[in-house]
Amino acid sequence: MSGTDGSQGSSPIVVILGRQGSGKGTQSDLIVAEYGFVHVSTGDMLRAAVAEQTELGRKAGELMDRGELVPDDIMCGIVADRLGRTDVVEHGVLLDGFPRTTPQADALESITADRGGIDVALNLDVPVDEVMRRMLDRGRSDDTVEAIERRLALYEEQTEPLLEWFAARDLLAVVDGVGNTDEVFGRVREVLEGVLARR
Ligand code: AP5
Ligand code: MG
Predict the structure, then answer these.
(1) Is the distance from the beta carbon of residue 14 to the nearest atom of ligand 1 less than 6 Å?
(2) pLDDT tens per residue across span 116-144
(3) Which of 83, 81, 75 is nearest to 101 (CA)?
(4) E strands of 42-119, at which residues?
(5) Would you state the torsion angle of the CA atoms of residues 80, 99, 36, 195, taken in this order, to the nearest 10 degrees?
(6) Does the beta carbon of 154 sit less than 6 angstroms from any atom of ligand 1?
(7) Which residues contact 140 (CB under 8 A, 6 or more apart)?
(8) CB of 69 closer than 6 A to ligand 1?
(9) Dist. CA 86 → ligand 1 center (Å)
């Protein structure tokens, strides 16, 4: 987490984690407005592919509507490619929705190894009943009760273990995600200021 490991001179690599509906996208908009990182949301990238009816979109759309995950090899390829682009290299990146599985986290670790590694993973902590309420109010096409239940089950099974993965590397910062958007952002900012000051 400091410049002594070679991160000085390279741009920040920040991950935002949290249950579906915990506010990752909402906080990401505020973070990029303040810090200028490039927002890389794998969910948004997949939804764009669905809208454009690309081959990836055709494969992913059906999985997403059922609340299933898109296979790791596809996701890791997309993210590796995106992180190699100039804007990310220059401004740093906020990864939203990736990694979501341990193989994805391992892939991210190797993709970022030669640029100082991951700086921090912010985990927005919001209880299940609250995220359910938020998603049902939002009404995205995959916000049906069945798909939400499947996504939350996959979260417990595949994504929650990542909290340990990040904690073991001293990269995890848990942020209370309950409260209004500005209150949550205040907590996020406090963590980021500390992390950026130590680079
Ligand atoms: P993705 O788009 O990442 O969806 P998700 O993980 O289900 O998360 P959400 O976007 O639903 O929630 P969010 O945390 O961003 O919350 P938001 O800010 O919107 O992924 C979609 C699908 O793509 C996956 O299911 C999978 O199929 C596939 N996929 C994506 N990445 C993948 C990967 N790496 N590997 C494999 N498959 C992948 O907030 C939710 C609502 O709450 C909003 O309405 C918001 O206005 C409201 N809200 C936000 N903050 C607050 C607050 N503080 N108080 C009250 N309401 C709030
Ligand atoms: Mg989102």
Answers:
(1) no
(2) 999 999 999 999 999 999 999 999 999 99
(3) 75
(4) 93-96
(5) -120
(6) no
(7) none
(8) yes
(9) 26
Residues ≥6 apart with Cβ < 8 Å to 157 = none
CA distance 94 to 41: 8
Do 46 and 70 touch, CB atoms closer than 8 A? yes
Tokens of 54: 């690309």
* Contact (CB, 8 A) for 121 and 96: no
> Average pLDDT for residues 61-78, to the nearest whole number?
97
95/124 Cα distance (integer angstroms) = 13
| Cβ contacts of 1 within 8 Å, gap of 6 or more | 7, 119, 120, 170, 171, 195, 198, 199
Running DSSP on this structure, what letter comes out for residue 97? Answer: S
Tell me, using a 6 A CB cutoff, whether residue 181 lines ligand 1. yes
Residues forming beta bridges with residue 95, ordered by sequence position: 15, 40
Question: CA neighbours within 13 Å on the CB side: how many for 134?
Answer: 19
Segment 93-115, tens digit of pLDDT: 999 999 999 999 999 999 999 99
Token pair for 63:
């999985």
Write out the residues surrounding ion ligand 2, Cβ under 5 A: 24-25
**Is residue 13's pLDDT more than 50?**
yes
**What is the number of the ligand closest to the CA of 26?**
1
